[in-house]
Design goal:
single chain, 41 strands, DUF5916, 5 helices, signal, DUF5916 domain-containing protein, mainly beta
């Protein structure tokens, strides 16, 4: 077995070396056919959505958009004309969007709406022309705004929040928008001579079922892909960036009580805040003191049937900006830095019941963050830097010491779009006072190098990394992890090969590494077919087939522990509905006892292996309609028994005021005696309402029988001025098994919080 894995890893490395050898420096490219010139205004621009100033009339027009969906071989059917200009404070974009008023579709009036849920005009700006990172701005015909950051070429995060302004005028056959983006919102450098940025504009018109862009983007890639951008040419240089300091204080009042612990009502007022300081026009310092995340939406729960820790995404605003710089080193199952390790911990809580008995249980606990700082951004067009430091307080009730967390990242652009990066992560635990801790958990450090490959045409993507951990009393051998991944994508093929090694003694206390002492490989191949028969192409946009595999072996014996191989058929319809169906065959070897229901029942014995076959499939209906639904199923063998699962949801859009939805998951596990069988329900109704473009209300309920919990989270938000909010948040948790007859409360909280964005 070791010989087999060494051979496999050698073949993978040889395959991956080929595009690396071919990755030579490429000439600068503006595309001569997609230049848009911009000049300074000669008179003030009034933001009213009319485009009647002389500067708009004389500005060059970016028109003749190209389709991205459903086809990419023709011009867009709907007309779009874009103009740009600027003054000392703002970058202005004026756009005339051809679309009948009767066909508007929007999810709601709430800011930062999800992609594919609303008609939208899009602006993507890349001031440093690296074709990897950019600013994203989007506007609906109802004047609803969305802003985000683009990283790694095409990954869009909507968690970035900043100021910009827009006004929309609606007509029967078109809508007209006038947009003003403050230069202080952007990060850029002014250079001697002529300045140029990369830029692209896009449209998504749901009723007409058309996605289009100014600079053409092939249909296999998203419209936000920064590899496909035109050139913004500054005939007059943009203004030299000046001082940019923002203060964001907050004040919150809360009342909460933990009924499980039997604690009395806790009331209090908390004060803290953030500061954003532009050290240079492209390098930003973020400071936080006593941060509070009470307004953040709760995690969406899942039924846990895994032997390992589940991953839940970060939702706290401070950690999300520039997260691509800090949180994407390594693979998904070997991150050296995972921000949820800061301020959130699991601990053993104890309470005394009515009989005087002391009960213990494991629970997630919020850990107070005392202060933090983050320096991140561009040093120049080729170098990016990230420095992060956070300090948390001691939590005595779970015997958790105070700790300091530090992260340092340096990234260098190479070739046309690739990068080389280095990362260093340190966690230092403290005893009482400021004394560093001692013992096996006193500190943990991880250092690593990484190369990310992005070809100019975006067909080749790759990642190659090596990380090493350092801890007290650590064995010096096998405290490392490394991996190599390479993927090729074109109009028809998607092929990925990879390999990964995670040593037995590798530790990343501030990372996400659910499994150690293992080698992995996840090869994939997929083929797409675009129908040519007119009768078929009017219904099916693309269909195809594929196969994915997962192979894992333990260290140091290289014994196969997990294998999962599946084949599937898929189809994407012209209506934007999607479906797939397939079959999977898997093998699992248990090195330790495991309860397949995760309910602390009798465990299957260690040293046994199980081969299972399952069927799976899914369907997502046309989300352009007011009512949409989805369903996904798996059924078949499960360890020494059988299991079936149905997961999905229903959504109703009440345009333009919001959505009502319900998600569901039902799992039935049948095992032979004496092992436990189980039936789990996870039901999550939610309502998201927007009374205007500044007042929003949401309620999310989760009924989880596996966790024996019902969670209620309600949030009222009033955005009384740009990026300044008033929140009223109510949370409640009950035991689900006693909710109907005799509801027992676990904990309850009510929070009133105000944040205010102040420019200095």
């Amino acid at each position: 077995m070791p010989h087999f894995y060494r051979k496999a890893m050698l073949v993978i490395c040889l395959l991956m070396a080929r595009p690396l050898l071919a990755q030579l420096p490429e000439p600068a490219d503006p595309d001569a056919t997609h230049n848009l010139h911009i000049t300074r205004t000669k008179a003030p621009i009034k933001l009213d959505g009319l485009l009647d100033e002389p500067d708009w009339q004389s500005a060059p027009v970016a028109g003749q958009f190209f389709q991205n969906f459903p086809f990419d071989s023709s011009f867009a059917k709907l007309p779009t004309d874009v103009r740009v200009t600027f003054d000392a404070n703002f970058l202005y974009i004026g756009v005339v969007v051809g679309q009948p008023r009767s066909t508007y579709i929007t999810r709601s009036l709430k800011r930062d709406f999800e992609g594919g849920t609303s008609d939208v005009f899009i602006i993507n700006i890349d001031p440093f022309k690296d074709k990897l990172n950019g600013f994203h701005f989007a506007l609906s015909p109802f004047g609803v705004q969305r802003e985000g950051l683009i990283a790694n070429g095409s990954e869009l995060s909507l968690d970035w929040d900043n100021k910009w302004y827009a006004e929309v005028k609606n007509y029967d056959d078109r809508w007209v928008a006038e947009i003003a983006i403050p230069f202080k919102t952007l990060r850029y450098r002014q250079v001697d001579g002529q300045n140029t940025w990369r830029i692209n504009f896009g449209r998504n018109s749901l009723k007409q079922n058309e996605t289009s862009t100014w600079y053409p983007v092939p249909r296999q890639f998203r419209p936000n892909n920064m590899a496909f951008t035109g050139l913004l040419v500054w005939d007059d240089a943009p203004p030299k960036p000046g001082p940019n300091i923002s203060l964001i204080p907050y004040l919150s009042a809360r009342t909460n009580r933990d009924f499980e612990l039997g604690t009395p009502m806790d009331k209090g007022i908390q004060v803290g805040g953030d500061a954003k300081i532009a050290i240079t026009p492209s390098l930003n310092l973020d400071l936080t003191v006593n941060p509070d995340f009470s307004q953040v939406e709760v995690d969406r729960q899942v039924t846990n049937l895994s032997r390992f820790e589940l991953f839940f995404p970060e939702r706290r605003q401070f950690f999300l900006e520039n997260n691509d710089l800090f949180g994407t080193f390594g693979f998904d199952n070997s991150r050296p830095f995972f921000s949820r390790r800061i301020g959130i911990a699991r601990g053993t809580l104890r309470r005394v019941n009515t009989d005087g008995d002391t009960l213990s249980y494991s629970s997630a606990v919020n850990v107070p963050i005392q202060f933090g700082a983050r320096l991140s951004g561009k040093l120049d067009k080729n170098w990016r830097i990230g420095l992060l430091n956070m300090q948390t307080a001691r939590v005595s009730r779970i015997d958790l010491p105070a700790a300091n967390y530090s992260v340092g990242v340096l990234q260098r652009k190479v070739f046309s779009r690739s990068t080389i990066g280095a990362v260093f992560v340190n966690k230092q635990n403290f005893q009482t006072g400021d004394q560093p801790g001692t013992g096996p958990a006193a500190f943990n450090r991880v250092a690593g190098l990484e190369y990310n490959l992005y070809s100019k045409d975006n067909k080749w993507e790759g990642e190659f990394y090596y990380h090493r951990s350092f801890s007290p009393q650590e064995l010096t051998t096998d405290a490392q992890t490394g991996g190599a991944h390479l993927m090729y994508t074109d109009r028809r093929w998607e092929i990925a090969v990879n390999g990964q090694y995670i040593g037995r003694h590798y530790r990343a206390d501030v990372g996400y590494v659910p499994r150690r002492g293992v080698v992995n490989s996840y090869p994939k191949i997929q083929y797409k077919i675009y129908p040519k028969n007119p009768a078929v192409s009017r219904v099916v946009n693309v269909w195809g087939f594929g196969s994915e595999h997962e192979l894992s072996a333990n260290l140091p014996a290289y014994q196969l522990t997990d294998r999962n191989s599946n084949v599937y058929l898929f189809s994407s319809f012209l209506s934007q509905a999607e479906a797939y169906v397939g079959m999977s065959n898997s093998y699992t070897y248990l090195f330790f006892g495991f309860d397949p229901t995760n309910t602390d029942s009798k465990t299957l014995p260690e040293g046994t292996g199980y081969t299972n076959t399952t069927l799976f499939g899914a369907f997502q209906s046309n989300q352009r309609r007011n009512f949409s639904y989805s369903a996904e199923f798996t059924t078949g063998q499960y360890f020494n028994g059988r299991s079936s699962n149905v997961t999905g949801g229903f959504t109703y859009r009440y345009q333009p005021y919001g959505v009502f939805a319900i998600d569901y998951s039902y799992t039935a596990i049948v095992l032979p005696k004496p092992y436990a069988s189980a039936n789990f329900w996870l039901v999550g109704p939610r309502a998201e309402l927007s009374f205007s473009r500044s007042v929003f209300f949401s309620t999310f309920i989760q009924y989880n029988t596996q966790a024996n919990n019902i969670n209620v989270n309600s949030r009222l938000q009033w955005r009384f001025r740009p990026v300044s909010d008033l929140f009223l948040v109510y949370t409640d948790n009950y035991f689900s098994n006693q909710f109907i007859q005799n509801p027992l409360v676990k904990n309850r909280a009510l929070v009133l919080k105000m944040t205010y964005w102040l420019n200095v």
